[in-house]
């Protein structure tokens, strides 16, 4: 027997129509907003460029600062639009200068971003593409958080704007920047949110806006093989692969997406990445897990896997998190592992962990956001429409 709930008599709620936030929107989307104001197509394109330039090159958050736009036009814009950053729930600064932000994009929609100042004159911002993750890699803290939802392109770009605000990097400097690179290595799997990642990269790399070139944007994937060549074709970005194991048995266990796309399938996809060559190498990330993947035999296998590929390997000492089931390999073991790779002519730097004290290092990111269950949403809706007992 089954019971069905009749929700058809629910009064239709008018769609919420608040002002639209323009901050972080793509040129195409800003233009659509201009057209919705009744501006004709050609002028709308020009206006969109002006507004985007003010927001993403000058960092303004006020329409009145857009001095080359007529006053009445500014007033019109202000009536229907805002320029807002996400709420910053938490901002932490590590002893090593690494900074971490927890941004709130909506009720229970929170994601982290990390700025890693480098030793050289460069700094990378690690952005999240999803709240939570579906992949459950066994060594990754984000993997213990259930998937909540994809971030929109605007929410991804907002993470860059927040960092630029904190670094006081407005207008976009043409040289001596603190923020020079973007890495999609925060929470989530970017290739499971490819459309939004592509749109965000278009906005981040727009040379009249944030202007971080595509060669300075790296997208990391755990191995969503069919989407890898598409990522290259649509973004021209740099590719990073979270490899972590050299045989299918171990990779099936620690990076479970390998059961769907095994090493052979993954490497076929990597070889199909457009424009690979000496100036465009694939980065392989390899987390060093004590007695799991750090033997000399595995270093030799790794060399074999890299054969014929323009590649570099980042050896990442495992970063622990509460309840994590692994330990980091001994330091001399990591060094011996690196030596095998170096002797084979491979670049294999050992990454110094950054921001461990504020839980900002690779794989330590996680937020408390949980997805509201459909049954809870239904309960809330019923409570909304059921007259209260007298
Ligand atoms: N889902 C994508 C994007 C996340 S990138 C991907 O897997 O590539 C985050 C990087 O940190 C990945 O290489 C991931 O494997 C690595 N990582 C995860 N947990 C880690 C940990 N505890 N210590 C060190 N690196 C970790």
Automatic annotation (TrEMBL):
Organism domain of life: Bacteria
SMART domains per UniProt: Elp3
Positions of S-adenosyl-L-methionine binding: 188-189, 220, 242-244, 319
EC number(s) per entry: 2.1.1.192
Note on how the cofactor is bound: Binds 1 [4Fe-4S] cluster. The cluster is coordinated with 3 cysteines and an exchangeable S-adenosyl-L-methionine.
Any one GO biological process: methylation
Binding site for [4Fe-4S] cluster: 133, 137, 140
Entry keyword set: 4Fe-4S, Cytoplasm, Disulfide bond, Iron, Iron-sulfur, Metal-binding, Methyltransferase, rRNA processing, S-adenosyl-L-methionine, Transferase, tRNA processing
GO molecular function, one term: methyltransferase activity
Occurrences of domain Radical SAM core (ranges): 119-357
Catalytic residues identified in the record: 112 (proton acceptor), 362 (s-methylcysteine intermediate)
Pfam families hit by this protein: Radical_SAM (PF04055), RlmN_N (PF21016)
Family in the record: Belongs to the radical SAM superfamily. RlmN family.
Other comment: Reaction proceeds by a ping-pong mechanism involving intermediate methylation of a conserved cysteine residue.
Family matches, as PANTHER family: 23S RRNA METHYLTRANSFERASE, RADICAL SAM CORE DOMAIN-CONTAINING PROTEIN
Name this protein carries in UniProt: Dual-specificity RNA methyltransferase RlmN
Biological source species: Hirschia litorea
Lineage of the organism: Bacteria, Pseudomonadati, Pseudomonadota, Alphaproteobacteria, Hyphomonadales
